Amino acid sequence: MNTEKIGFVRVIHKVSGWAGGLGTVFLFIITITVICDAFARSFFNLPLRFGPDLLSFLAIFSILLPSAMALRNDRHIEVDVIFNKLPKSLKSPIRVITFSIALIVFTITTIYAFQLTMDSVRGSLKSNSPFGMKLWYSQLGVFIGMGLLSLQILAKIILEIFYKEQKGLG
């Protein structure tokens, strides 16, 4: 069975790809903002008023959005010194166990990020920078990034358990 026929996995793979692309765009915007800020400081002795807020907002999104795509493409950091020495019959169960533990941790993080975001929305919390951006903008990035990563881990578990002959596609 081709992974393209697995609806949930296909959708999560596509969303992870789009999120990774968006993270790349945000990284480009960070670069342009830093260059503009350096130019404004050097020639006009005035920093960009919105610079710190924009950079913190975009940094969170540019780090967390592509994480699901990195997992989808197996581009994450993994320590496989011991894992490669294990027999093939043990590798799949160990992957499922480690993915399940990661799913629990990232799901809990997603839930707390959502609660933190909602608390910031209700409390109208703002950063203490001159621009005073609302904090929930950045906190929403943690919620979205961790949520996507949790869904991508779930997709990996589905592939590992039910379609291990298709593992690595996506």
> Could you tell me how far the N terminus lies from the C terminus, measured between alpha carbons in angstroms?
13 Å
Query: What's the story with the biggest beta sheet?
Result: none
Which spans of ≥5 residues are poorly predicted at pLDDT below 50?
Answer: 166-170
Helix-residue proportion:
over 70%
Provide the structure class: mainly alpha
- Please tell me the overall pLDDT: 87
- Total helices: the number is 4
Q: What's the β-strand tally?
A: 0
Instruction: Encode the helix/strand succession as letters.
Output: HHHH
User: What is the total number of structural domains?
Assistant: 1
- Coarse morphology: elongated
Radius of gyration: 20 Å
Portion in strands: under 5%
